[in-house]
Amino acid sequence: MNPGSLSLLAWCGIGFIILVVVSINVWLLSLLRHRGTAPSESIWKRTTEALRNPFAREDQALNELSRRVASLRNSSPEDRPPTS
Q: Residue 51 CA to chain centroid, in angstroms?
């Protein structure tokens, strides 16, 4: 093996490091371009809320459905639409 030649593993390591550096730069450039649209704080806040309660939207929809069903049950028969 020549002292100036690199092994395949070394080339893979160099390629991985280059890939990481380029992807970080692209990510930072993307954040810089879109910084006015959505602040990073709200992204982190939404992410942590989603991790704490992943079914929050479904829970809200089920609560709304439960509330509507309860109001239908409590309404008088005259108020209900006819069923056919």
A: 9
What torsion do the CA atoms of 19, 24, 25, 27 make, to the nearest 10 degrees?
Answer: 120
Residue 42 has pLDDT above 90, yes or no: no
Cα dihedral 56, 57, 59, 63, rounded to 10, equals 130
Residue 58 buriedness (CB in 10 A; 0-12 / 13-18 / 19+): exposed
pTM of the entire structure?
Answer: 0.40
Q: Are 72 and 80 in contact (CB under 8 A)?
A: yes
Confidence band, pLDDT 50/70/90 cuts, at residue 59: very high
Q: 59, 53 in Cβ contact below 8 A?
A: yes
Q: What's the length of the chain?
A: 84
